[in-house]
Amino acid sequence: MAERGENPHGEVDFAQRYEPASVLDAGCGTGRVAIEFARRGVDAAGTDLDESMLATAQSKAPELTWVQSDLAALDMGRTFDAVVMAGNIILFVQPGTEAAVVAGAARHVAPGGHLIAGFSLGRGVTADEWDAWCTDAGLRPIERYSTWDGDPWSDDGNYLVAVATR
């Protein structure tokens, strides 16, 4: 992305608007988001179901906490100021488990903290469904954007960045 002149850390830039001191990169893959948060001085951890991706994250940043788990069953034993689900995470979970995945992520949002997620629309998940899952998990949806750059939300858009708080 950087080679194409694109910002490879748009999700981190966006989430830093909320000034988190701690962040969980939920569905971290190879750790790009968590590692960038840590580089910026934020207490960061990551979780993913994929063992090989998590091994790559661990090799890149062994000083960070990396946990292999399904998000629906995740128990980190702590909460975070922000839980970030970048990269269409909700679209890759087992169909029918979306509400449980959101609830698993929400369990890790500290009081006053935020769940921040971005995903493509028109692929089986709607903005209203996302908000309902957040509400059912004890969070309050507060903002919608159409990009990680913070472009205004449009009901006919094809991407959602959603923010909910505890």
Please provide a written account of the structure:
This protein is of the alpha/beta class. It has helices at 10-15, 32-39, 51-60, 98-106, 127-136, and strands spanning 22-26, 43-48, 65-68, 80-85, 109-120, 140-145, 159-165. It has a seven-stranded mixed beta sheet. Helix 2 links the parallel strand 1 (22-26) and strand 2 (43-48). The chain is globular. The N and C termini lie far apart (33 Å). The model has no long low-confidence stretch (mean pLDDT 95).
Q: How many β-strand runs?
A: 7
Strand sequence of the main sheet, in spatial order?
3-2-1-4-5-7-6
Q: Any idea of the CATH topology? A: Rossmann fold
Number of helices: 5
Largest sheet: 7 strands, mixed
> Could you give me the name of the CATH homologous superfamily?
Vaccinia Virus protein VP39
The level 1 CATH classification is: Alpha Beta
Helix content: 25-40%
Indicate the radius of gyration in whole angstroms: 15 Å
Structural class given helices, strands, pairing? alpha/beta
**Proportion of beta-strand residues:** 25-35%
Order of helices and strands: HEHEHEEHEHEE
What is the typical, i.e. mean, pLDDT? 95
Which stretches of 5+ consecutive residues score pLDDT under 50? none
Calculate the terminal CA-CA distance, rounded to whole Å.
33 Å
Which outline best applies?
globular
CATH architecture: 3-Layer(aba) Sandwich
Strand-helix topology:
Layout: H1 10-15, E1 22-26, H2 32-39, E2 43-48, H3 51-60, E3 65-68, E4 80-85, H4 98-106, E5 109-120, H5 127-136, E6 140-145, E7 159-165
Parallel strand pairs: 1-2, 1-4, 2-3, 4-5
Antiparallel strand pairs: 5-7, 6-7
